[in-house]
Specification:
MPG, 9-stranded antiparallel beta sheet, DNA-binding
DNA sequence: TGATGGATTAGCT
DNA sequence: GCTAATCCATCAG
């Protein structure tokens, strides 16, 4: 997929990414995932975006050129991957939430032995990254470069009536914007969880 | 400089 | 439905 196709507003970009294939090559083999669920995060206007509070070392990649991978670490143990959209100076990205494993199922299953679906689905953003073997070292990778370990490939287009939209998962801010998109009926789509205050934090004595 | 809580997941009740 | 696991960016003091 070319950079021009990706250098657009993250909301239409999110729709376009459904059905596309993300390929990750590692020492142990190749895994390909067909994207089934994504969410748009629109920089400066969006209180839920990592860019909302300005440019920092963590979100640096989002200010860079489109078509690069933004990887961040959450909850002390998980990675999430985004595809950067728009062009220089205009931050925005699409969070990759889930997909179907279309190649390298065994490898995917071995990387995530406890995941449901026997390696056929990557249901949830952190499952997706671990199945693909994506971690901090992949932050900033150019998805449009044939030599990159992670690449974005065009897939079968998804008919627009199969694309559904709704509120983003686990996000407290801007719950009214339907910037989560998924392929209706896909077994990979994650179950919706409302955002809000963190679940009760029990402090050990 | 210390506290807080998150674009989460899996396992248990 | 509830909670532990566990790093680090951000914010309050």
């Amino acid at each position: 997929m070319g950079r021009e196709e990706l250098a657009v507003d993250p909301v239409p970009l999110a729709r376009r990414l459904l059905g596309c294939v993300l390929e990750a090559r590692g020492d142990d083999g190749v895994v390909r995932v067909r994207l089934a669920e994504v969410e748009a995060y629109r920089g400066l206007d969006d209180p839920a975006s990592h860019c909302y509070r300005g440019r920092t070392a963590r979100n640096e990649v989002m200010w860079g050129p489109a078509g690069h991978l933004y990887v961040y670490f959450v909850y002390g143990m998980h990675f999430c991957a985004n595809i950067v959209g728009l062009s220089d100076g205009e931050p925005g990205a699409v969070l990759l939430r889930a997909g179907e494993v279309v190649e390298g199922r065994e490898l995917a299953a071995s990387r995530r032995p406890t995941a449901r679906g026997g390696g056929a689905v990557a249901k949830g953003p952190a499952v997706l990254t671990s199945v693909l073997g994506i971690d901090r070292s992949h932050n900033g990778v150019d998805l449009t470069d044939a030599g990159s370990p992670v690449r974005l490939l065009a897939g079968r287009p998804v008919p627009s009536d199969r694309i559904h939209a709704g509120p983003r998962v686990g996000v407290a801010a801007a719950m009214d914007v339907p910037w989560r998109f998924w392929i209706a009926g896909s077994p990979a789509v994650s179950t919706y969880r409302r955002g809000g205050r963190a679940r009760t934090r029990v402090r050990r004595p």
